[in-house]
Each structure stands twice: as structure tokens, then as C-alpha cells.
DNA sequence: ATCGTTGTAATCTTCTTTGATACATCCATA
DNA sequence: TATGGATGTATCAAAGAAGATTACAACGAT
């Protein structure tokens, strides 16, 4: 199973908003064309990023902007904003292990802390990557 | 999106096989009862673990065994054995970014190495956890 | 008042996971 | 060597998630 494309789309969106902020009105339609998905998908993600305080979206006149400094937005912020399923628990545990079996009764006690540790390692890596670094790389590649 | 329960089920299975090896014939039916899923789900996973050289399964007479020392089986081995989707790539990337847009054209160059780095951090953590450590914890909890 | 845009609901398709049934194949052993 | 308990695997169904698409009310600058 994979982490859904919402995450990579969201990062793509933020890069677009920042890269084109001076030259275009960055609407859901505009972003959708760069990402190559339906504009409604973009608007839904914009709402999630807005709730997380990452972007601002203007009704009426239209267009999206970054809501706070890029070095205060980490990949983990973006991930949590758009990928929030089941309270952010990465591993899906089988639902009803048999409590009458010693293993079934203790499987959570055995595994939960380890699964959490793995998830934490991944999140720490994401927290260490800011959109500001990513934008520096992007600007080097985008000769606009 | 979450990592499927196949992973936690597979670990549960291995613990069962090891914990009951001296007292029971550990059949798919037996394991299914502990995990509380359909026996066919267990058999399918047993096949995947077998292909990975983690367990041995006896036809005819029935029963499963661990195929190699527990300290040579890591959580990453188990994860890769049962969770192998899309060549083990964790993040699903949106399929067709617009090549006519500078951002769409470069999004992979910008993100691929970072996504890989995150995945690698997670895998490193899983590689550091062996079934032998897990079994030690399990044995402490299972007064059989 | 108009027009372009956002916010959001509703529906549809596709894909993946898991559950379940069925049955051919296998193998120890009686 | 026939049998009975298991495995190996095909097939289908059910449920859930993701994403595509259409539709339209609400908004706000002009």
C-alpha cells in the first residue's frame, strides 16, 4: 500500500503558488493544469492546506497564496494536512485479534511501541525538510 | 492512507509459529483463529513469507515453521515480503505532471531524492528490529 | 449587476483489500 | 493404497478509498 498522491500533489501546489506568485493569479484551474488533475481535486486540497494554516485562498477574486514563511512549513506539516487518516496512525492493525489466545491478547503490547518508533523516524525526517529548502532547489531548476 | 494490516498480521503469524512450535501443529486454521481472519488470508501470507525465505510450509501433513534464525529476520524483511507494491516505492506520485509547465517538468527532480530519503529512514528503522528481539518481548508476556 | 472563482455536495469509476467458497493437490499414516 | 486433514490457488463478492467529473450556490472585485 502506498501513501496517496495527495501528498506529492500538495507539495507541487505549494511550489506552483510560490513560483508564479508574481506573474500569475494562481487559481485552482491554473494549478490543476500544472499538476494535471481535476480542479476540484486542487480546491479540496487547498481547503485542507488552508485549515492547516499553510495557504490562503481568496474567494470571489480568486487565487492562492502561501500563508506563512516557507522555512516554517515542513514536509510533515504538508503531509499531516492532507494525509490525515485514522489519527495519523501509519500502520493499519488487524482489528480483532483473538483475546483467548496468548499471542492475540498480547500482540498490541508487543508491537505498538515498535510501530510508533518506525512512524516517528519517518516523521522526524519529514519534519527536517522545509519548503524553503525545496523552493531553493526548485528555483535553481526553474529558469522562469 | 495506511499501510495494510498484512504487515501486522504477518508479524503476528511469525510469533504464533514460534510460540506454539513445540505444543501445536501450527496450521493456517490455527493461526487464523489467533489473528481472527479467514484461513485463506493466512495461507496467502504464508506463501509470500515462504517466497521470502522466512517460513516453511508443509503440504499434506500441514503446519508452518520458521525457515531461518529469528535474529536474521528483520521487520523490513517481513514488510517487503507482504507489502510489496509498486517496486517498494512508498509514496505514490501523481502520474502525469504537465511537461509544458516548468514546475510540472521539474517536480520529480525536486522531490524524488527527498521522498527516497524519507522512505530510507523508515526502512532503516525497520531493518534494525529483528524478530528475535520481538520474540524476547513476546516470551516475557506469554506465560504459556 | 456581472463575471470569474471558490466551496462543496453528489455521483461514478476504478483499484485495493479482505472475506468467503470451492476444489484440486499433496502427504503421512492407518 | 485408500483416506483424511492440509495446503495452494482460483474465483467471486463486499467494502472502502481515491480520484474524476458535473453541478451549483456563494462570494467579491470591478
Structure description:
The structure is a homodimer of 144-residue chains. The first copy, chain A, has a two-stranded antiparallel sheet with strand order 1-2. Chain A has 144 residues and is mostly helical. Chain A is elongated, with a radius of gyration of 19 Å. In chain A, α1 packs across α3 (39-51). The mean pLDDT of chain A is 92. Chain A has six helices and two strands. Chains A and B meet through α1, α2, α5 and α6 of A and α1, α2, α5 and α6 of B. Chain A binds a DNA duplex (30 and 30 nucleotides) through α3.
N-to-C order of helices and strands of chain A: HHHEEHHH
Chain pair with largest interface: A-B, 59 and 59 residues
Number of strand segments of chain A = 2
The number of helical runs of chain A is 6
SSE layout and pairing:
The structure is a homodimer of 144-residue chains.
Chain A: H1 6-19, H2 28-35, H3 39-51, E1 55-57, E2 64-66, H4 75-82, H5 102-127, H6 131-141
Antiparallel strand pairs in A: 1-2
Helix pairs in contact in A: 1-3, 1-4, 1-6, 2-3, 4-5
Chain A binds a DNA duplex (30 and 30 nucleotides) through residues 1, 4-6, 25, 27-29, 37-38, 40-41, 43-44, 46-47, 57-63, 85.
